[in-house]
């Protein structure tokens, strides 16, 4: 049964409601920015192509990570495990930027970039393309290396909380 319909100017509240019904896996994107190491939680990570291996992630231009990505830096995508809610929360803004990497165990990857121990998967990426759209940039990352850990057990974000 349809409960609410909106068009044009009224669409934003219902759009938010629709997006709350879109369950998504959570990752933490990390990079070395002009002000040192930086990272943020992201649900906008999507597999893009296998040839070349590539992902996309949508990053708000206000995020500290954005300055680095817009300069074409290397970055890591750490796909969180079910038990890593605290890390998602910290990197989603609950913990100050300079303290975030005290949450969880982090090891430098082969490029020296922060890589999360016990993440389900770690993807070492470089920026291949970036397009502005509205408040965000759509970032294409070419995947140079992958590490898998343990079983498939993703952390899922839905309706403002975790499944
Ligand atoms: C579960 C979750 C998913 C998020 N997904 C995104 C995302 O895909 N893109 C984005 O720009 N911000 C996303 N955010 C918000 C950023 O993680 C948050 O604004 C972060 O604090 C930005 O980093 P900064 O504080 O270093 O600027 C998400 C937050 C949470 C909690």
TrEMBL record:
Protein name, as recorded: NADH-FMN oxidoreductase RutF, flavin reductase (DIM6/NTAB) family
Keywords: Oxidoreductase
Example of a GO MF term: FMN binding
Keyword Oxidoreductase: yes
Domain of life from the UniProt record: Bacteria
Gene3D superfamilies for the chain: Electron Transport, Fmn-binding Protein, Chain A
InterPro entries in the record: Flavin_Rdtase-like_dom (IPR002563), NADH-dep_flavin_reductase (IPR050268), Split_barrel_FMN-bd (IPR012349)
UniProt keyword Membrane present: no
Pfam entry (one): Flavin_Reduct
GO biological processes: pyrimidine nucleobase catabolic process
Occurrences of domain Flavin reductase like (ranges): 19-163
Upper lineage: Bacteria, Pseudomonadati, Pseudomonadota, Alphaproteobacteria, Sphingomonadales
Native organism: Sphingomonas jatrophae
